């Protein structure tokens, strides 16, 4: 499927306003409701839309400490990386995990917890106990002047 201008407008609008009604979406992209709904369904079926979510306010949930953690692994084998991936998948504190290049670290994690005590528990009782983790470097977010979940389309 090749995206045209209207498909891109639909994707941009849905990224910003995921709960928009089909009628409102159709109006926003200058289509009638029926063709708009067909296009959205086609975008979903083609895999351009992964799903729909609610973005929960972390502060309201008491999660105030956001950090980025660089992880160094002791071995660089597919098996070691797979074990690490599986282990951290069970940690709800880990929002994102990326196997990276160009740094002294192997992974970059985005982690959210309540406070520094909670971070210490996560670090000592979970993260450093994962087999293969040989180094950890943490950076704490002081301010987030720009946050977005929307990708350029």
TrEMBL record:
GO biological process terms held by the UniProt record: regulation of DNA-templated transcription; response to amino acid
SMART domains per the UniProt record, alphabetical: HTH_ASNC (SM00344)
Domain HTH asnC-type: 3-64
Gene3D superfamilies per the UniProt record, alphabetical: 3.30.70.920, Winged helix-like DNA-binding domain superfamily/Winged helix DNA-binding domain
GO annotation, cellular component aspect: cytosol
Keywords: DNA-binding, Transcription, Transcription regulation
InterPro entries: ArsR-like_HTH, AsnC-type_HTH_dom, Dimeric_a/b-barrel, Tscrpt_reg_AsnC-like, Tscrpt_reg_AsnC/Lrp_C, Tscrpt_reg_HTH_AsnC-type_CS, WH-like_DNA-bd_sf, WH_DNA-bd_sf
One MF annotation (Gene Ontology) recorded for this entry: sequence-specific DNA binding
CDD domains (UniProt xref): HTH_ARSR (cd00090)
PANTHER family recorded: LEUCINE-RESPONSIVE REGULATORY PROTEIN, TRANSCRIPTIONAL REGULATOR AZLB
Name by which UniProt lists this protein: AsnC family transcriptional regulator
Organism, as annotated: Alteromonas confluentis
């Amino acid at each position: 499927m090749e995206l045209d201008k209207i498909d891109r407008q639909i994707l941009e609008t849905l990224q910003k306003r995921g709960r928009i009604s089909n009628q409102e979406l159709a109006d926003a992209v200058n289509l009638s409701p029926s063709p708009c709904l067909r296009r959205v369904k086609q975008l979903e079926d083609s895999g351009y839309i992964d799903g729909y979510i609610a973005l929960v306010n972390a502060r309201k949930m008491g999660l105030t400490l956001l950090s980025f953690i660089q992880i160094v692994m002791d071995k660089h084998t597919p098996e070691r990386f797979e074990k690490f991936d599986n282990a951290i998948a069970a940690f709800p504190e880990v929002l994102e995990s990326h196997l990276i290049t160009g740094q002294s670290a192997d992974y970059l994690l985005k982690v959210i917890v309540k406070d520094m005590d909670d971070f210490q528990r996560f670090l000592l009782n979970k993260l450093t106990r994962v087999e293969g983790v040989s180094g950890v470097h943490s950076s704490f977010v002081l301010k987030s002047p720009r946050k977005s979940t929307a990708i350029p389309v």
